[in-house]
Amino acid sequence: MYIFSEYQEQGFLILENFVSSIICDQLRQQTAKLVSEFEPQTVKNIFTTNEQSRISNKYFFDSSEKINFFFEENAFDNKANLCQSKELSINKIGHALHELDSVFKNFSYNNKIARLAIELGLKEPVIIQSMYIFKQPNIGGEVNCHQDSTFLYTEPEPVIGLWFALEDATIENGCLWAIPKAHKLGLKSRFIRATDDTTSFKILDNTQWDLTKLIPLEVKKGSLIVLHGLLPHLSYANKSRFSRHAYTLHLIDKNWHYAKDNWLQRNNLPLNSLSIRS
Ligand code: FE2
Fold first, then answer.
1. Residue 190, C-beta contacts closer than 8 angstroms, at least 6 positions apart
2. Which of 162, 175, 244, 251 has its CA 20 to 30 A from that of 216?
3. How remote is the CA of residue 200 from the centroid of ligand 1, in Å?
C-alpha cells in the first residue's frame, strides 16, 4: 500500500537493491553479445539513401516487435561511416527484447516485477515495450524533458515506466532527473502516428514545466526507479568517461484502452500477461 500511495503522490519511486549485481551483469553481458552479433551495415544503408526518413521510420516502427539498434545522433561521419566502434556508438536497443531474447524475457517476466505491478494497481499487467539504454561515455546524448504517456498513451490510467540501473547512475554520467509531483499537472502532448505512418506531436497544453524544480535521481547499480507516465523527466548528456547502462520496461493493463495512434503497435507478437508464476 505504501508503494502505491507514494507512487501516486510523488510520481516516482526509488526501490534500492531491486536487482542483484549478478543479474545486472548478466543483462549487460547478454547485451554485449547482441551488439557483437549486430551488423551495422544494414542500418548504415539507411543513411545513404534518399529515402532516409521513410526507411528509418519503418525501422523504428518495426522495432515494436523486434530487437533493433539505434545509434547516437552523431555516431556517423558524412560518409556514413561510424566515427568509433559500434559498441560505443549505440544509443539504445528496442523495443521487444523482453519477448524475443531469452535472457531479457526471463528477467522481465520474473515474479518480483509481477508482484510490483500488482502493488502498483495493475490487475492484468502486460509489458508493452522494453529498451536497453547505453548512455555512452562522452557522447551519450541528452534526452529532453518529457512524459512517457506522450509516446504510449493509455486510458483511463497512464503507462508505468520501470527503469533498472545496471550501473551506478550519477549526475556526472547522466542520471534521470524528475519534477516531483508534476504528474498531477496533466499531459502536455501526444506523439501521434497517422495512418500514412507520418508522425507529429499534438499539443494538449502548452504551459511550460518549471524546470528549476527538477531533482536528480542518483541511484546505485541494481536500483529500480518507477516512473508515473505523466511525470516529467529527462537526462542530460553524459560527458563523463563512464557509461550509464539501464534497462527499461513499460507496463500497462490489458483492460485499459491503448491508443491506436500510438507509434508502437503490437500486431503479431502475442501480448503476454505478467503474472506471478509458481
Ligand atoms: Fe522517459
1. 149, 150, 153, 201, 202, 204, 259
2. 251
3. 18
